[in-house]
Design a protein that fits this description.
alpha+beta, two-stranded antiparallel sheet, 16% strand
Length: 102
């Protein structure tokens, strides 16, 4: 079996991460085709939502990986975490981020 490199989800509108709507969609265009994507910061929020609400540890690991691969707004992620009622779990993310730092 081949490993899966990408996951594609087709979501019903309105697009949201947790309880907040996504404000900005990024678009990649190649050969006349457009692919709309979450920003890296919203991608981290999405992965953290799975960790926060379902204690899904692989989602926390994915949030850390995205944070290393892309520029993310940690203050925005902290604000969002607090608004989601998960301020007590946000330090788990920071701890794993710090432990994984090269």
């Amino acid at each position: 079996m081949l490993p899966i490199k990408f996951i594609v989800e087709f979501l019903s509108p309105p697009l949201s991460v947790g309880e907040e709507p996504v404000k900005k969609i990024q678009t990649i265009e190649k050969k006349g085709r457009k692919l709309k994507l979450l920003s890296p910061t919203d991608c981290v929020k999405d992965r953290l939502a799975a960790y926060y609400h379902w204690n899904d540890r692989p989602s926390l690991e994915q949030a850390v990986m995205v944070s290393f691969a892309q520029s993310v707004d940690l203050k925005e992620i902290e604000r969002w975490s607090s608004n989601e009622g998960m301020a007590e779990k946000y330090p788990d993310f920071l701890e794993d981020l710090d432990k994984s730092r090269p």
